[in-house]
Design goal:
478 residues, alpha+beta, 434 Repressor (Amino-terminal Domain), 6-stranded mixed beta sheet, 3-stranded mixed beta sheet, 44% helix
Length: 478
Protein backbone atom coordinates (compact mmCIF):
# COMPACT_ATOMS: atom_id res chain seq x y z
CA UNK A 1 0.00 0.00 0.00
CA UNK A 2 1.52 3.32 -1.05
CA UNK A 3 1.57 6.31 1.27
CA UNK A 4 -1.83 8.00 1.28
CA UNK A 5 -2.55 11.21 3.18
CA UNK A 6 -6.25 11.65 3.91
CA UNK A 7 -6.23 14.07 6.86
CA UNK A 8 -9.05 16.30 5.64
CA UNK A 9 -11.34 13.35 4.90
CA UNK A 10 -10.62 11.88 8.32
CA UNK A 11 -11.30 15.22 10.01
CA UNK A 12 -14.55 15.64 8.04
CA UNK A 13 -15.65 12.15 9.08
CA UNK A 14 -15.01 13.03 12.74
CA UNK A 15 -16.92 16.30 12.50
CA UNK A 16 -19.86 14.62 10.74
CA UNK A 17 -20.05 12.08 13.57
CA UNK A 18 -19.68 14.89 16.14
CA UNK A 19 -16.73 13.25 17.81
CA UNK A 20 -13.80 14.85 19.58
CA UNK A 21 -10.30 13.79 18.60
CA UNK A 22 -10.04 11.87 21.88
CA UNK A 23 -13.31 10.00 21.20
CA UNK A 24 -12.30 9.05 17.66
CA UNK A 25 -8.83 7.97 18.76
CA UNK A 26 -10.42 5.72 21.39
CA UNK A 27 -12.76 4.13 18.82
CA UNK A 28 -9.85 3.44 16.48
CA UNK A 29 -7.55 2.19 19.22
CA UNK A 30 -4.80 4.73 18.49
CA UNK A 31 -3.21 7.52 20.49
CA UNK A 32 -4.52 11.08 20.42
CA UNK A 33 -1.18 12.38 19.12
CA UNK A 34 -1.17 9.82 16.28
CA UNK A 35 -4.71 10.85 15.24
CA UNK A 36 -3.66 14.51 15.31
CA UNK A 37 -0.73 13.70 13.00
CA UNK A 38 -3.06 11.81 10.64
CA UNK A 39 -5.53 14.70 10.46
CA UNK A 40 -2.73 17.18 9.74
CA UNK A 41 -1.21 14.96 7.00
CA UNK A 42 1.97 14.47 9.01
CA UNK A 43 1.50 10.71 8.87
CA UNK A 44 -0.01 8.60 6.05
CA UNK A 45 -3.22 6.64 6.51
CA UNK A 46 -2.31 2.97 7.05
CA UNK A 47 -4.17 -0.24 6.35
CA UNK A 48 -4.75 -1.02 10.08
CA UNK A 49 -6.37 2.40 10.54
CA UNK A 50 -8.54 1.86 7.46
CA UNK A 51 -9.67 -1.50 8.82
CA UNK A 52 -10.38 0.11 12.20
CA UNK A 53 -12.52 2.75 10.44
CA UNK A 54 -14.42 -0.01 8.68
CA UNK A 55 -14.97 -1.86 11.94
CA UNK A 56 -16.01 1.21 13.93
CA UNK A 57 -18.22 2.95 11.36
CA UNK A 58 -18.95 0.35 8.66
CA UNK A 59 -17.17 2.50 6.08
CA UNK A 60 -16.15 1.09 2.72
CA UNK A 61 -12.36 1.52 2.64
CA UNK A 62 -12.75 2.39 -1.05
CA UNK A 63 -14.03 5.81 0.10
CA UNK A 64 -10.46 6.59 1.23
CA UNK A 65 -8.92 5.40 -2.05
CA UNK A 66 -6.72 7.74 -4.06
CA UNK A 67 -8.71 6.71 -7.15
CA UNK A 68 -11.30 9.35 -6.23
CA UNK A 69 -8.51 11.90 -5.90
CA UNK A 70 -7.18 11.12 -9.39
CA UNK A 71 -10.67 11.31 -10.86
CA UNK A 72 -11.26 14.72 -9.26
CA UNK A 73 -7.86 15.97 -10.45
CA UNK A 74 -8.78 15.04 -14.03
CA UNK A 75 -12.13 16.84 -13.74
CA UNK A 76 -10.47 19.91 -12.21
CA UNK A 77 -7.79 19.98 -14.91
CA UNK A 78 -10.47 20.20 -17.58
CA UNK A 79 -12.64 22.67 -15.67
CA UNK A 80 -9.71 25.04 -15.03
CA UNK A 81 -8.24 24.80 -18.54
CA UNK A 82 -10.39 27.73 -19.67
CA UNK A 83 -8.13 30.44 -21.20
CA UNK A 84 -10.48 33.07 -19.73
CA UNK A 85 -8.94 32.34 -16.31
CA UNK A 86 -5.73 34.00 -17.45
CA UNK A 87 -3.37 31.54 -15.81
CA UNK A 88 -2.34 27.89 -15.88
CA UNK A 89 -3.06 25.83 -12.76
CA UNK A 90 -0.19 23.46 -11.93
CA UNK A 91 -0.89 19.76 -11.40
CA UNK A 92 0.59 20.03 -7.91
CA UNK A 93 -2.00 22.68 -7.01
CA UNK A 94 -4.83 20.55 -8.42
CA UNK A 95 -3.63 17.56 -6.42
CA UNK A 96 -3.46 19.65 -3.24
CA UNK A 97 -7.03 20.88 -3.79
CA UNK A 98 -8.37 17.40 -4.55
CA UNK A 99 -6.64 15.90 -1.53
CA UNK A 100 -7.30 18.52 1.12
CA UNK A 101 -10.50 20.20 -0.07
CA UNK A 102 -12.37 17.70 -2.25
CA UNK A 103 -15.76 19.31 -1.57
CA UNK A 104 -14.44 22.65 -2.89
CA UNK A 105 -12.97 20.86 -5.89
CA UNK A 106 -16.27 19.17 -6.71
CA UNK A 107 -18.07 22.50 -6.34
CA UNK A 108 -15.67 24.09 -8.87
CA UNK A 109 -16.29 21.25 -11.33
CA UNK A 110 -20.06 21.60 -10.90
CA UNK A 111 -19.89 25.37 -11.40
CA UNK A 112 -17.83 24.89 -14.55
CA UNK A 113 -20.33 22.42 -15.99
CA UNK A 114 -23.22 24.78 -15.23
CA UNK A 115 -21.28 27.65 -16.78
CA UNK A 116 -20.53 25.59 -19.88
CA UNK A 117 -24.18 24.54 -20.19
CA UNK A 118 -25.34 28.15 -19.84
CA UNK A 119 -22.82 29.27 -22.47
CA UNK A 120 -23.91 26.55 -24.85
CA UNK A 121 -27.59 27.39 -24.36
CA UNK A 122 -26.86 31.07 -24.92
CA UNK A 123 -24.99 30.28 -28.14
CA UNK A 124 -27.83 28.07 -29.36
CA UNK A 125 -30.38 30.80 -28.58
CA UNK A 126 -28.26 33.40 -30.39
CA UNK A 127 -28.12 31.14 -33.42
CA UNK A 128 -31.90 30.77 -33.45
CA UNK A 129 -32.33 34.56 -33.18
CA UNK A 130 -29.80 35.17 -35.94
CA UNK A 131 -27.31 36.92 -33.65
CA UNK A 132 -23.57 36.27 -33.86
CA UNK A 133 -23.97 33.05 -35.82
CA UNK A 134 -20.25 32.43 -36.03
CA UNK A 135 -19.87 32.49 -32.23
CA UNK A 136 -22.98 30.39 -31.76
CA UNK A 137 -21.83 27.73 -34.18
CA UNK A 138 -18.46 27.47 -32.45
CA UNK A 139 -20.04 25.77 -29.43
CA UNK A 140 -22.46 22.87 -29.83
CA UNK A 141 -25.24 22.61 -27.23
CA UNK A 142 -25.14 19.72 -24.77
CA UNK A 143 -27.22 16.77 -25.90
CA UNK A 144 -29.51 14.48 -23.89
CA UNK A 145 -27.15 11.66 -24.84
CA UNK A 146 -24.24 13.41 -23.13
CA UNK A 147 -26.37 14.16 -20.07
CA UNK A 148 -27.28 10.49 -19.65
CA UNK A 149 -23.68 9.46 -20.24
CA UNK A 150 -22.58 11.82 -17.46
CA UNK A 151 -25.20 10.28 -15.15
CA UNK A 152 -23.69 6.80 -15.51
CA UNK A 153 -20.19 8.26 -15.16
CA UNK A 154 -21.18 9.93 -11.88
CA UNK A 155 -22.48 6.58 -10.58
CA UNK A 156 -19.28 4.73 -11.54
CA UNK A 157 -21.36 2.76 -14.05
CA UNK A 158 -23.01 0.77 -11.23
CA UNK A 159 -26.72 0.96 -10.28
CA UNK A 160 -26.97 -1.39 -7.28
CA UNK A 161 -30.77 -1.60 -6.95
CA UNK A 162 -31.17 -2.72 -10.57
CA UNK A 163 -28.16 -5.03 -10.47
CA UNK A 164 -29.41 -6.87 -7.41
CA UNK A 165 -33.02 -7.10 -8.60
CA UNK A 166 -32.01 -8.55 -11.98
CA UNK A 167 -29.68 -11.09 -10.40
CA UNK A 168 -32.37 -12.14 -7.89
CA UNK A 169 -34.84 -12.99 -10.67
CA UNK A 170 -32.24 -14.87 -12.71
CA UNK A 171 -31.20 -16.98 -9.72
CA UNK A 172 -34.74 -17.56 -8.41
CA UNK A 173 -36.01 -18.69 -11.82
CA UNK A 174 -32.82 -20.71 -12.43
CA UNK A 175 -32.40 -19.25 -15.91
CA UNK A 176 -29.75 -21.32 -17.75
CA UNK A 177 -26.54 -19.28 -17.96
CA UNK A 178 -25.48 -18.78 -21.56
CA UNK A 179 -28.78 -20.09 -22.97
CA UNK A 180 -31.32 -17.73 -21.47
CA UNK A 181 -33.33 -16.70 -24.54
CA UNK A 182 -35.98 -19.52 -24.48
CA UNK A 183 -36.34 -19.30 -20.68
CA UNK A 184 -36.80 -15.53 -20.74
CA UNK A 185 -39.35 -15.78 -23.56
CA UNK A 186 -41.29 -18.35 -21.50
CA UNK A 187 -41.07 -16.08 -18.42
CA UNK A 188 -42.49 -13.13 -20.35
CA UNK A 189 -45.40 -15.21 -21.63
CA UNK A 190 -46.25 -16.91 -18.31
CA UNK A 191 -45.89 -13.83 -16.09
CA UNK A 192 -46.98 -11.00 -18.39
CA UNK A 193 -48.88 -12.73 -21.18
CA UNK A 194 -46.44 -11.34 -23.73
CA UNK A 195 -45.78 -13.49 -26.77
CA UNK A 196 -42.52 -13.26 -28.69
CA UNK A 197 -42.76 -13.25 -32.49
CA UNK A 198 -39.85 -13.11 -34.93
CA UNK A 199 -40.27 -10.88 -37.97
CA UNK A 200 -40.04 -12.04 -41.57
CA UNK A 201 -37.26 -9.58 -42.43
CA UNK A 202 -39.66 -6.92 -43.70
CA UNK A 203 -42.05 -6.28 -40.78
CA UNK A 204 -39.66 -4.27 -38.61
CA UNK A 205 -38.04 -1.00 -39.75
CA UNK A 206 -34.44 -1.34 -40.84
CA UNK A 207 -32.11 -1.50 -37.84
CA UNK A 208 -34.92 -2.10 -35.31
CA UNK A 209 -34.23 -5.04 -33.02
CA UNK A 210 -37.38 -5.04 -30.87
CA UNK A 211 -40.88 -3.59 -31.10
CA UNK A 212 -43.49 -4.07 -28.38
CA UNK A 213 -47.24 -3.86 -28.97
CA UNK A 214 -48.66 -3.25 -25.47
CA UNK A 215 -52.29 -3.60 -26.57
CA UNK A 216 -51.80 -6.94 -28.33
CA UNK A 217 -49.09 -8.02 -25.87
CA UNK A 218 -46.83 -9.03 -28.73
CA UNK A 219 -43.07 -8.48 -28.80
CA UNK A 220 -41.56 -8.57 -32.28
CA UNK A 221 -37.87 -9.32 -32.67
CA UNK A 222 -35.53 -9.24 -35.62
CA UNK A 223 -34.54 -12.64 -36.99
CA UNK A 224 -31.01 -11.32 -37.32
CA UNK A 225 -30.51 -11.40 -33.55
CA UNK A 226 -28.24 -14.09 -32.14
CA UNK A 227 -29.43 -16.03 -29.05
CA UNK A 228 -27.48 -13.81 -26.67
CA UNK A 229 -28.95 -10.69 -28.28
CA UNK A 230 -32.44 -12.20 -28.07
CA UNK A 231 -31.94 -12.81 -24.34
CA UNK A 232 -30.84 -9.19 -23.89
CA UNK A 233 -33.97 -7.88 -25.64
CA UNK A 234 -36.25 -10.14 -23.57
CA UNK A 235 -34.57 -8.97 -20.36
CA UNK A 236 -34.93 -5.31 -21.40
CA UNK A 237 -38.67 -5.83 -21.87
CA UNK A 238 -38.89 -7.46 -18.43
CA UNK A 239 -37.22 -4.39 -16.91
CA UNK A 240 -39.80 -2.08 -18.51
CA UNK A 241 -42.78 -4.24 -17.51
CA UNK A 242 -41.76 -5.13 -13.95
CA UNK A 243 -39.48 -2.31 -12.80
CA UNK A 244 -40.71 0.79 -14.57
CA UNK A 245 -41.54 2.52 -11.27
CA UNK A 246 -38.01 1.88 -10.04
CA UNK A 247 -36.55 3.17 -13.31
CA UNK A 248 -38.62 6.35 -13.09
CA UNK A 249 -37.68 6.84 -9.43
CA UNK A 250 -33.97 6.74 -10.28
CA UNK A 251 -34.55 9.17 -13.15
CA UNK A 252 -36.52 11.60 -10.96
CA UNK A 253 -33.72 11.67 -8.37
CA UNK A 254 -31.11 12.31 -11.08
CA UNK A 255 -32.67 15.66 -12.03
CA UNK A 256 -32.38 15.43 -15.83
CA UNK A 257 -33.08 18.73 -17.55
CA UNK A 258 -35.54 17.64 -20.27
CA UNK A 259 -37.86 14.85 -21.42
CA UNK A 260 -35.44 13.64 -24.10
CA UNK A 261 -32.75 13.00 -21.49
CA UNK A 262 -35.26 11.28 -19.21
CA UNK A 263 -36.42 9.05 -22.07
CA UNK A 264 -32.85 8.09 -22.97
CA UNK A 265 -32.05 7.44 -19.31
CA UNK A 266 -35.03 5.08 -19.06
CA UNK A 267 -33.73 3.09 -22.03
CA UNK A 268 -30.20 3.10 -20.61
CA UNK A 269 -31.35 1.86 -17.21
CA UNK A 270 -33.51 -0.86 -18.79
CA UNK A 271 -30.51 -1.99 -20.82
CA UNK A 272 -28.40 -1.97 -17.66
CA UNK A 273 -30.98 -4.23 -15.98
CA UNK A 274 -30.89 -6.56 -19.00
CA UNK A 275 -27.12 -6.88 -18.82
CA UNK A 276 -27.35 -7.67 -15.11
CA UNK A 277 -29.92 -10.38 -15.78
CA UNK A 278 -28.18 -12.09 -18.72
CA UNK A 279 -24.79 -11.77 -16.95
CA UNK A 280 -25.72 -12.15 -13.23
CA UNK A 281 -23.23 -10.34 -11.00
CA UNK A 282 -22.00 -13.10 -8.68
CA UNK A 283 -21.70 -15.80 -11.34
CA UNK A 284 -20.18 -13.45 -13.89
CA UNK A 285 -17.58 -12.05 -11.47
CA UNK A 286 -16.63 -15.58 -10.37
CA UNK A 287 -16.14 -16.70 -13.98
CA UNK A 288 -14.25 -13.51 -14.85
CA UNK A 289 -11.79 -14.12 -12.01
CA UNK A 290 -11.53 -17.80 -12.92
CA UNK A 291 -10.65 -17.07 -16.55
CA UNK A 292 -8.48 -14.04 -15.70
CA UNK A 293 -10.88 -11.71 -17.50
CA UNK A 294 -10.49 -13.42 -20.88
CA UNK A 295 -13.20 -11.60 -22.82
CA UNK A 296 -13.67 -14.16 -25.58
CA UNK A 297 -13.90 -17.11 -23.16
CA UNK A 298 -16.46 -15.20 -21.11
CA UNK A 299 -18.41 -14.49 -24.29
CA UNK A 300 -18.60 -18.22 -25.06
CA UNK A 301 -19.56 -19.04 -21.46
CA UNK A 302 -22.45 -16.55 -21.34
CA UNK A 303 -23.47 -16.67 -24.99
CA UNK A 304 -22.89 -12.97 -25.72
CA UNK A 305 -20.57 -10.89 -27.87
CA UNK A 306 -17.22 -9.22 -27.20
CA UNK A 307 -18.72 -5.76 -26.70
CA UNK A 308 -21.38 -6.98 -24.25
CA UNK A 309 -18.74 -8.66 -22.08
CA UNK A 310 -16.62 -5.47 -22.07
CA UNK A 311 -19.63 -3.40 -21.10
CA UNK A 312 -20.50 -5.70 -18.20
CA UNK A 313 -16.91 -5.86 -16.95
CA UNK A 314 -16.96 -2.08 -16.56
CA UNK A 315 -19.89 -2.33 -14.09
CA UNK A 316 -18.54 -4.78 -11.48
CA UNK A 317 -18.33 -2.36 -8.57
CA UNK A 318 -20.62 -3.90 -5.94
CA UNK A 319 -19.30 -3.04 -2.43
CA UNK A 320 -17.47 -5.98 -0.83
CA UNK A 321 -17.50 -7.86 -4.15
CA UNK A 322 -15.66 -5.62 -6.59
CA UNK A 323 -14.13 -6.75 -9.84
CA UNK A 324 -11.27 -4.95 -11.52
CA UNK A 325 -12.34 -1.31 -12.06
CA UNK A 326 -12.38 -1.09 -15.85
CA UNK A 327 -13.02 1.76 -18.27
CA UNK A 328 -14.96 1.00 -21.44
CA UNK A 329 -15.12 3.00 -24.65
CA UNK A 330 -16.49 2.51 -28.18
CA UNK A 331 -15.44 4.67 -31.14
CA UNK A 332 -15.96 4.70 -34.89
CA UNK A 333 -13.35 5.29 -37.59
CA UNK A 334 -13.91 9.05 -37.45
CA UNK A 335 -13.14 9.14 -33.72
CA UNK A 336 -16.72 9.69 -32.59
CA UNK A 337 -17.26 8.23 -29.11
CA UNK A 338 -20.65 6.49 -29.00
CA UNK A 339 -20.15 4.73 -25.66
CA UNK A 340 -17.93 5.47 -22.70
CA UNK A 341 -18.27 4.08 -19.21
CA UNK A 342 -15.86 4.40 -16.32
CA UNK A 343 -16.00 2.38 -13.09
CA UNK A 344 -13.14 4.38 -11.59
CA UNK A 345 -10.95 7.43 -12.09
CA UNK A 346 -10.00 7.40 -15.81
CA UNK A 347 -11.28 10.57 -17.40
CA UNK A 348 -12.58 10.86 -20.95
CA UNK A 349 -12.17 14.38 -22.25
CA UNK A 350 -15.20 16.42 -23.24
CA UNK A 351 -13.00 19.05 -24.88
CA UNK A 352 -12.00 17.89 -28.36
CA UNK A 353 -11.12 14.39 -29.49
CA UNK A 354 -9.16 11.63 -27.83
CA UNK A 355 -5.50 10.73 -28.33
CA UNK A 356 -4.44 9.28 -31.73
CA UNK A 357 -1.65 7.31 -30.01
CA UNK A 358 -4.26 5.26 -28.15
CA UNK A 359 -4.47 1.67 -29.44
CA UNK A 360 -8.25 1.86 -29.81
CA UNK A 361 -7.64 3.54 -33.19
CA UNK A 362 -5.01 1.03 -34.28
CA UNK A 363 -7.65 -1.71 -33.93
CA UNK A 364 -9.25 -0.63 -37.23
CA UNK A 365 -6.05 -1.64 -39.05
CA UNK A 366 -6.20 -5.09 -37.41
CA UNK A 367 -9.88 -6.12 -37.60
CA UNK A 368 -10.92 -8.92 -35.23
CA UNK A 369 -7.56 -9.02 -33.48
CA UNK A 370 -7.13 -8.20 -29.77
CA UNK A 371 -4.49 -5.51 -29.30
CA UNK A 372 -2.83 -4.63 -26.00
CA UNK A 373 -1.12 -1.42 -24.95
CA UNK A 374 0.57 -0.07 -21.86
CA UNK A 375 -0.23 3.65 -21.86
CA UNK A 376 0.97 6.43 -19.55
CA UNK A 377 -1.09 9.58 -18.95
CA UNK A 378 0.48 13.03 -18.32
CA UNK A 379 -0.07 12.58 -14.55
CA UNK A 380 2.26 9.52 -14.80
CA UNK A 381 -0.52 7.02 -14.08
CA UNK A 382 -0.14 3.94 -16.29
CA UNK A 383 -2.94 1.81 -17.74
CA UNK A 384 -3.29 -1.51 -19.55
CA UNK A 385 -5.61 -1.27 -22.56
CA UNK A 386 -7.24 -4.01 -24.64
CA UNK A 387 -8.84 -3.06 -27.98
CA UNK A 388 -10.63 -4.91 -30.78
CA UNK A 389 -13.03 -4.16 -33.60
CA UNK A 390 -16.66 -5.32 -33.59
CA UNK A 391 -19.07 -5.24 -36.53
CA UNK A 392 -22.84 -5.14 -36.71
CA UNK A 393 -24.31 -6.22 -40.04
CA UNK A 394 -27.71 -5.03 -41.25
CA UNK A 395 -28.46 -7.36 -44.11
CA UNK A 396 -27.15 -9.59 -46.87
CA UNK A 397 -24.57 -9.14 -49.60
CA UNK A 398 -23.70 -5.55 -50.35
CA UNK A 399 -25.51 -4.15 -47.32
CA UNK A 400 -23.43 -1.70 -45.27
CA UNK A 401 -22.18 -2.84 -41.87
CA UNK A 402 -21.30 -0.79 -38.81
CA UNK A 403 -17.78 -1.25 -37.49
CA UNK A 404 -16.53 0.07 -34.17
CA UNK A 405 -13.45 -0.31 -32.04
CA UNK A 406 -14.11 -1.16 -28.41
CA UNK A 407 -11.49 -0.81 -25.69
CA UNK A 408 -11.27 -1.94 -22.09
CA UNK A 409 -8.66 -0.48 -19.75
CA UNK A 410 -7.55 -0.60 -16.13
CA UNK A 411 -4.78 0.69 -13.88
CA UNK A 412 -1.52 -1.20 -14.41
CA UNK A 413 -1.57 -2.39 -10.79
CA UNK A 414 -4.31 -4.86 -11.79
CA UNK A 415 -2.40 -6.20 -14.82
CA UNK A 416 -1.22 -9.41 -13.13
CA UNK A 417 -4.85 -10.51 -12.72
CA UNK A 418 -5.58 -10.20 -16.44
CA UNK A 419 -4.70 -12.77 -19.09
CA UNK A 420 -3.77 -10.01 -21.55
CA UNK A 421 -0.69 -9.10 -19.52
CA UNK A 422 0.98 -12.40 -20.51
CA UNK A 423 4.24 -11.70 -22.32
CA UNK A 424 3.76 -7.93 -21.94
CA UNK A 425 6.41 -5.76 -20.34
CA UNK A 426 4.35 -3.93 -17.71
CA UNK A 427 7.15 -1.61 -16.64
CA UNK A 428 5.63 1.92 -16.67
CA UNK A 429 8.93 3.25 -18.03
CA UNK A 430 8.24 1.62 -21.43
CA UNK A 431 4.58 2.69 -21.63
CA UNK A 432 3.32 4.73 -24.59
CA UNK A 433 2.74 8.36 -23.52
CA UNK A 434 -0.84 9.35 -24.37
CA UNK A 435 -3.23 12.11 -23.26
CA UNK A 436 -6.93 12.84 -22.88
CA UNK A 437 -7.05 14.97 -26.01
CA UNK A 438 -4.91 17.68 -27.59
CA UNK A 439 -6.86 20.59 -26.11
CA UNK A 440 -6.15 19.50 -22.52
CA UNK A 441 -2.94 17.48 -22.96
CA UNK A 442 0.28 18.80 -21.44
CA UNK A 443 2.67 16.94 -23.80
CA UNK A 444 3.93 19.80 -25.97
CA UNK A 445 6.43 17.69 -27.93
CA UNK A 446 3.95 14.99 -29.06
CA UNK A 447 4.48 14.14 -32.75
CA UNK A 448 0.71 13.58 -33.20
CA UNK A 449 -0.44 16.86 -31.64
CA UNK A 450 -3.20 18.45 -33.72
CA UNK A 451 -3.42 21.90 -32.05
CA UNK A 452 -2.12 23.70 -28.94
CA UNK A 453 -3.60 23.02 -25.50
CA UNK A 454 -6.28 25.45 -24.38
CA UNK A 455 -4.80 28.52 -22.71
CA UNK A 456 -1.23 27.82 -23.89
CA UNK A 457 0.34 30.98 -25.29
CA UNK A 458 2.79 30.37 -28.15
CA UNK A 459 5.92 32.30 -28.87
CA UNK A 460 7.50 32.48 -32.29
CA UNK A 461 10.05 29.74 -31.62
CA UNK A 462 7.43 27.29 -30.44
CA UNK A 463 5.36 27.89 -33.55
CA UNK A 464 8.33 26.63 -35.57
CA UNK A 465 9.01 23.52 -33.52
CA UNK A 466 6.49 21.89 -31.17
CA UNK A 467 3.44 23.17 -33.04
CA UNK A 468 4.64 22.88 -36.63
CA UNK A 469 1.99 20.24 -37.51
CA UNK A 470 -0.77 22.86 -37.43
CA UNK A 471 1.19 26.00 -38.28
CA UNK A 472 0.24 27.74 -41.51
CA UNK A 473 2.38 27.36 -44.59
CA UNK A 474 2.89 31.12 -44.79
CA UNK A 475 6.35 32.40 -43.77
CA UNK A 476 6.64 33.97 -40.32
CA UNK A 477 7.59 37.62 -40.42
CA UNK A 478 10.80 38.48 -38.58
Amino acid sequence: MKKTFMGVRLKRLREERRLTQAALAAKLGISLSYLNQLENNQRPLTLPVLLALNSAFGLDVQSFSDDDEARLIADLREALADPALGETIATADLRELALNMPAVGRALVTLNRKYRLATEQSAALSARLGEDRQAASAILPSTPFEEVRDFFYAHNNHIPELDEAAEAIAMRMKFPIGQMAPALAAYLESRHGVKAVFDTFDELPSGTQRKFDARAKVMRLSRRLRPGQQAFQFATQIAILEFDNELRSIIDKAGFTNDDARGLARIGLANYFAGAMVLPYTVFLSEAERWRYDIELLGHRFGVGFETVCHRLSALQRPNARGIPFFFIRVDRAGNISKRQSATDFHFSRVGGTCPLWNVYEAFANPGRVLTQLARMPDERTYLWIARTVSHGQGGYGAPAKTFAVALGCDVRHAERIVYSQGLNIDPAVATPIGMGCKVCERLDCPQRAFPPIGRALNIDESRSHFAPYATSAPIAQ
